[in-house]
Amino acid sequence: xxxxxxxxxxxxxxxxxxxxxxxxxxxxxxxxxxxxxxxxxxxxxxxxxxxxxxxxxxxxxxxxxxxxxxxxxxxxxxxxxxxxxxxxxxxxxxxxxxxxxxxxxxxxxxxxxxxxxxxxxxxxxxxxxxxxxxxxxxxxxxxxxxxxxxxxxxxxxxxxxxxxxxxxxxxxxxxxxxxxxxxxxxxxxxxxxxxxxxxxxxxxxxxxxxxxxxxxxxxxxxxxxxxxxxxxxxxxxxxxxxxxxxxxxxxxxxxxxxxxxxxxxxxxxxxxxxxxxxxxxxxxxxxxxxxxxxxxxxxxxxxxxxxxxxxxxxxxxxxxxxxxxxxxxxxxxxxxxxxxxxxxxxxxxxxxxxxxxxxxx
Amino acid sequence: xxxxxxxxxxxxxxxxxxxxxxxxxxxxxxxxxxxxxxxxxxxxxxxxxxxxxxxxxxxxxxxxxxxxxxxxxxxxxxxxxxxxxxxxxxxxxxxxxxxxxxxxxxxxxxxxxxxxxxxxxxxxxxxxxxxxxxxxxxxxxxxxxxxxxxxxxxxxxxxxxxxxxxxxxxxxxxxxxxxxxxxxxxxxxxxxxxxxxx
Lengths: 361, 198
Hints:
The structure holds two protein chains of two kinds.
Chain A: E1 2-11, E2 14-20, E3 25-29, H1 36-48, E4 67-76, E5 80-89, E6 92-97, E7 100-101, H2 105-108, E8 114-118, H3 123-126, H4 129-143, H5 145-166, H6 172-212, E9 218-223, H7 231-248, E10 259-264, E11 267-268, H8 269-272, H9 275-297, E12 302-306, H10 314-323, E13 330-334, E14 346-351, E15 354-357
Parallel strand pairs in A: 3-13, 3-14, 8-12, 12-13
Antiparallel strand pairs in A: 1-2, 1-4, 4-5, 5-6, 6-7, 9-10, 10-11, 14-15
Helix pairs in contact in A: 4-5, 5-6, 6-7, 6-9, 6-10
Chain B: H1 3-13, H2 20-33, H3 38-51, E1 53-54, E2 61-62, H4 68-71, E3 76-83, H5 86-95, E4 100-104, H6 123-130, E5 136-140, H7 145-158, E6 166-169, H8 185-193
Parallel strand pairs in B: 3-4, 3-5, 5-6
Antiparallel strand pairs in B: 1-2
Helix pairs in contact in B: 1-2
């Protein structure tokens, strides 16, 4: 996939920008706080309509404005170009693709794959389970419509059930009705997660070997909150949990509480891996995600690298570029100009939300 | 602008399907362009509001004792199609393929919207089942979580221990005359799941 053009309006600190991307490698150069990451964030939204920095749609709309819009021209190999418009307003997102509004988001997600590498990624190792679930959900939603639909149904059922638990005295029959509506979606979500991790692990091990040039094996372990292998198991578990759920007024078990274990050489990466190993780990994870997206969509994802490669030593940096094909599109940001021997960069200078071609001083 | 006109527009805008512009058009149409339509419209609305009521048996709208469909001797009273709303009933009725009778729930279970069993028209369905007039129930409820839960509720709560009553749920799949190419994947999935022997 190649991003040919990106226009953004009222997106974060960007009032209006129109950028054409020529060639495979674009470098956005500028001091901190000028809008480089904002542009990458806007670009990355096209894949799963989710930002790598926030789950708040409102936060992406420029302060004091009602709505933000991003317009993309993308080219999928052999399929010509598509024009996509994404409108963010009042916490809602709307997408149109080639002048037709997209009603089934599931069919849109992952069609235009991109992978974002950002400094925040380190939180996948160090941060809360919610971040790791989000990573897994975005990866899976962009590669499978069935997963996206099941996850949506699961969360809807969970919301209804939790609301029911908050009532003064919900009826047993009503609770059971929502348990039964929830069960098939929950089973699908769990099954997809377990299967996806097996595949992701193969890619992760390969990518980690490339990036870190060391022998330890990384492994993502599925820490399922509940063993929900079939609908009967779900119904049994929900039934057994009922009185405790009622006391706490929330559903205590289920895939919404799942976690991923980031393991390196058999030990928890959060506690035992060095800072450098953790950074290599998340970069390898993004490369693994890239391979998954490529396999599912049939096109090479755009790589969006937000200032993270600057943190790598030259050796790892070279190893990273070996993992990305030379004709795959890369949009990177940094505060220092990139080394010229890596790729044939065209450099744009970013200042206060505006983007100008870089001229050597 | 006139406050009286604004008031009318405001009230019209609250009606389903009407936006600001349509509300303005309708208000001007009735008050300025075709004022002769206003009287009959008011009269017919008033007449309908006193004449129409909910059928105590089926929940459908009626002017008589029971709704016209239920009262029709040509309809099979032992086959009951459960729907969420009156427009849903009308949609099935327009298709002309169903010869049984209906039961309108006036909604579906949704704790998020404050709808529980007491808010739905379950009592008269229970009564119909208990009185033995129902031999077959067809669930024509929506394919979302709330529709699904409502189906389970009817099965477990209203039809518990009544294996003698046939229960089915309508299929979800491709629209008639529709090709496969343009169907979205969720629809194709239900169509494949619901395939039948040929």
